[in-house]
Amino acid sequence: MKKIRFYKLQASGNDFILINNYQLKIKEDKLKKIARKYCARKTGIGADGLLVIEPSKRGNFKMRIFNADGSEAEMCGNGARCVVLWANSVRKIKNMTFFETKAGMIEAKIKERKNKGALISIKMTDPFDLKLEIPLVLEKRKIKVNYVNTGVPHTVIFVEGLEKIPIEEIGRKVRFHKRFLPQGTNVNFVEILKDDFIKIRTYERGVEGETFACGTGAVASAIITTKFLKSKNKRIKINVLTKSEERLKVYFYQNKSITDVWLEGSVSLIYEGEVYIVRLLHC
């Protein structure tokens, strides 16, 4: 029976399985099956997604991200930070790296800290398609949402009393709303605590449920919050409190557009192991 080595990592409570596909060369249809089988919480390893490392002609490596339902996403902020820690721990890449994703090239910085895990910062691709106060009708109820693509599509909804919001019920309706077809959208519920401090909960497309954190969602929420508050500052720093209770930091520059966007937070390698996948590779 064929077995492959995998790594389990987490960033802000977002957990991932990572496999190195340099030598394995597992094809896309099999990768989707591996994601569906092994991301399952009760019958697999359990994860929000599968990270796949492949060769790149443009960077140190290429990152692919498959959601728990087997669909492939363009980008994942916390997944990207996990990949950087893996590159640092296993491939011994130090200080900085530059890698390829479907959303574009990502720059990363690594800061090792004793007894605290690594602090990983990634420079995101510039956000686009920013839209504010989009009217939606959810079962005869009118609401306004905001939208921006930070590598993947995100909707941001401002709320009060975040802990009482039925995230999965409302999130699912917005995620599949006809306004966002065909690709759908991730859905972030945001409570503003201070001008530079927000709390978020996210319904993730592909996971089809709430996750402990979402890196691209944290970035989208920080950008939309700045626009909502009509901040005049050029250099912006927003602290983001996730469902896992970990804080992420989002930095960016705003002028006529949003540029130089960075996401920062801690990452940890939980364990590594081997798993038998022979049936998946031959079915």
Could you say what the CATH architecture of the largest domain is? Roll
What is the percentage of strand-forming residues? Answer: over 45%
Oligomerization category of the chains in this entry: single chain
CATH secondary-structure class of the largest domain:
Alpha Beta
Largest sheet: 17 strands, mixed
Calculate the terminal CA-CA distance, rounded to whole Å: 14 Å
Shape: globular
Report on this structure.
The protein is α+β, with helices and mostly antiparallel strands. It folds into two domains: 3-125 and 268-282, Roll (Diaminopimelate Epimerase, Chain A, domain 1); 128-256, Diaminopimelate Epimerase, Chain A, domain 1. The protein has helices at residues 21-24, 28-38, 77-89, 167-175, 215-228, 278-282, and strands spanning 3-11, 14-20, 49-54, 62-67, 72-73, 96-101, 104-111, 118-123, 128-138, 141-149, 153-158, 186-194, 197-204, 209-211, 235-241, 247-254, 258-276. The chain has a 17-stranded mixed sheet that branches. The protein is globular, with a radius of gyration of 18 Å.
Task: Summarize it.
By secondary structure, the chain is an alpha+beta fold.
Topology:
Layout: E1 3-11, E2 14-20, H1 21-24, H2 28-38, E3 49-54, E4 62-67, E5 72-73, H3 77-89, E6 96-101, E7 104-111, E8 118-123, E9 128-138, E10 141-149, E11 153-158, H4 167-175, E12 186-194, E13 197-204, E14 209-211, H5 215-228, E15 235-241, E16 247-254, E17 258-276, H6 278-282
